[in-house]
Amino acid sequence: MIKKSNDNTPPTSLIEVKEVSLRIQGNTILENINLNLNTGETVALIGPNGAGKSSLVRLILGLTKATTGSVYIKPETRIGYVPQQFSIDNTLPLTVQRFLTLGGRYSTTQLNNALSEVGAQKLLNSPIQNISGGETQRVMLARALLRKPELLILDEPAQGVDVTGQAELYELISSIRENHRCGILMVSHDLHFVMATTNRVLCLNRHICCSGHPEAVSHDPRYLELFNRLPSIALYTHHHDHSHDLDGNIISTQCDHTQEKTDG
Q1: Among candidates 162, 3, 181, 214, which has minimal Cα distance to 78?
Q2: Fewer Cβ atoms within 10 Å of its own Cβ: the N or the C terminal residue of the chain?
Q3: Segment 205-218, tens digit of pLDDT
Q4: In the chain, alpha helices (H)
Q5: Which of 139, 128, 135 is nearest to 91 (CA)?
Q6: What whole-number distance in Å separates Cα of residue 128 and Cα of residue 124?
Q7: Within the chain, which residues score under 50 in pLDDT?
């Protein structure tokens, strides 16, 4: 279960993680993690594979119990969640409409409104097994939005989406935060996009290496040391005077893309 604060005065944050550690079969997964997230802000967790990002998400959702420390979520907070991986048996006849109603009763108008907000209104009657990776991520976002979340937790939301589609998706996430005034906790490997779409960044490698405003973190020696070990990091700038389909393919032209890849 998610723990409440031990203090007499409850925190004002949506999420407050205090000195949390997680050990499994003698292995340290997370060590002394502190994190808070307020209404209307986006906090991004970045780090290499095995850094403990998804484990921290599971702790916050109450799916895993911390070895030490406490996790607080503001009482009665409505949470929308987009998992890192999602798959459906190809033999199961399931439309997007039916999938969206598995978690609750929603009218066709509510479903259409949620899909429209994420740019996926045409998918309502499509078999969910036949839609693309970019479309699936948008449907999952629509599913989360149906809960009218005050807190949106996104675990690698752009996984399986091409680079242009990722730019579109992160812009969409920013607009969701502005429109719904919800707090967003987002896990990502996409450093070049995260830096432009988040309020605060926590650089995680089982412990918090550094944290702060994206610009400050991007110049922090600990951040540079950690990610210089990766084979490559793409720095990507995307200037819009065109539009894309759900997978990021350009519908109209006149775009300016700048991409630089640095080998580590």
Answers
A1: 181
A2: N
A3: 999 999 999 888 88
A4: 53-61, 96-100, 108-117, 133-145, 163-180, 191-197, 214-218, 221-227
A5: 128
A6: 9
A7: 1-9, 229-240, 242, 244, 247-248, 250, 253-264
Which single residue is written with the structure tokens 């309502």?
124
* Two structure tokens written together for 214: 């994206």
In 3D, which of 61, 75, 65 has the Cα closest to residue 29?
65
Q: Which two tokens stand for residue 38?
A: 């307020």
List domains and CATH numbers for the chain. 1-78+149-234 (3.40.50.300), 88-148 (no CATH)
pLDDT of amino acid 169: 86
Cβ count within 10 A of residue 57: 22
Coil vs helix vs strand at 162: coil
For 107, the 3-state DSSP assignment is coil
pLDDT at 132: 87
**If you search the block for the tokens 């978690």, which residue do you land on?**
103
Give pTM, 2 decimals: 0.80
